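Let's do one together. I've listed all components of the complex below, 166 residues spread over two lines.
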Amino acid sequence: MVYDVGEKRVNKALKVGRRYLSWVQNSVFEGELSPALYQQLKADMGHLLDKTHDSVIFYTWRTERYSTREILGQERGTGDPFL
Amino acid sequence: MVYDVGEKRVNKALKVGRRYLSWVQNSVFEGELSPALYQQLKADMGHLLDKTHDSVIFYTWRTERYSTREILGQERGTGDPFL
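Okay, and this is what the predicted structure of the assembly comes out as:
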């Protein structure tokens, strides 16, 4: 999940993100979710957004077999952005 | 590709990103690349990074059959972030 939201909503988005996923980078979350939890995450994010201004993209893949994840530089994903 | 780089390097990262991919959101790029271009993108990003501070994550998938992309709010991907 990657989001680009107005300054006033960044903390709320961070809180919702951490409820369901792991923080990996500024405005970027990752995690494994059941379909039901995924729907709930989308609903929670939908409630806090200003839909005329903010943007959230959800990338999902059913299997990791055909995908890779590579990092350059720092692995930030300590699970807590303020550590 | 998602990146979280120091203020001084944001423009450089944006320029490299746009050379290979489409801008879709703040610090988020998408696109289809050959393996060779993907290596080049990683090399170019690698050159501009401060590896002790910055972070870039590349998510790749060989087929879109097992993945989805959903947007809440604004679809920003006009290809030019300053439009």
